[in-house]
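User: My collaborator and I are trying to settle a disagreement about how two of our proteins should look. Neither of us wants to argue from intuition anymore, so we agreed to look at predicted structures for both before our next call. Could you fold the first one, then the second, and keep them clearly separated?

Assistant: That sounds like a sensible way to settle it. I'll keep them separate. The first protein:
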Amino acid sequence: MKIVLQRVKEASVSVGDETVGRIGRGVCLLVGVEKGDSATEADYLSKKVAELRIFPDSDDKMNLSLLDIGGGVLAVSQFTLAGCIRKGRRPSFDRAEPPRSAAVLFDYFVGRLREQGVEVATGVFGAMMDVRLINDGPVTFIL
């Protein structure tokens, strides 16, 4: 699994004219599932996202986690993260997990975050989505 994590002041995702997910302070995750990914990776990454100390404390040091601040997660499936652009000018998506099994693992990952007490909003798997966010910092990590 590949995740682009952005610390946000707020974020939302829409499909067409309908907002399907919205959070306040927290993180926006673009999540790509690759062939061979399993619950092991999803378990590790869900714990890492929840416990990563990327929010400022009273001394303005990155010392607090998502759990510490009670922040939310906006998780958006992003199969293009599994794309390869090393050869030619057109991306190859051979590394991407097929949609049906990718959706199962994405849902499992979201469920593991919720089990840790994290509020999670999502987009619609496989839909064309508009993602809006106010990046806080900016602070961005690739997991």
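The second protein, kept apart from the first:
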Amino acid sequence: MLVTTMLKYFVSRRVLLLATALALCLNLAGCGLFQPQVESDPGPTPKVCKLIVKSAVCQIGKRYKPGGVSPKSGFDCSGLVYFVYKNNGYKIPRITKDQAKFGRRVSKDNPREGDILVFRTSNSPNGLHTGIYTGDRCFIHSPSSGKKVKRDTYASGYWKNRLVAIRRVVR
């Protein structure tokens, strides 16, 4: 009886060691069988993100126009974001408050080029402003009447404490 018990112990111990060794080898070999599945980011590819930023950069200097959605007539903030995404094959809402809810929420610590930045500019329900993140805590936007599309930082000055959301556009 003692021999049978000891034999079972050594066999089960040996099987456990072999299984562990096999799992380790497969994992080290890059099989990925034992690695958790990570959901891929459904946002634009890095190449498309760069095109989105490039499209926004091309609008710098265009005039502000309430309701504007084109380089010829001018842009309001959401019109600029709408135009840039549309020209890169993405359909997004035209209105600021809808852009502020569109796509997927991204941590303020993890923006990516091309993400939509949403700022709170007043306490009214429509007191929102949008722009396109360009990297290095900067964004391109169409600020207000009498001004032109420009690149700004949100790390200091007026925009510093006004960032309320970052949205990643998904298809």
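Some points you might bring to the call about the second protein. Residues 48 and 88 are 8 Å apart (CA to CA). Strands lie at 69-70, 74-75, 104-106, 116-120, 128-135, 138-141, 150-153, 163-168.
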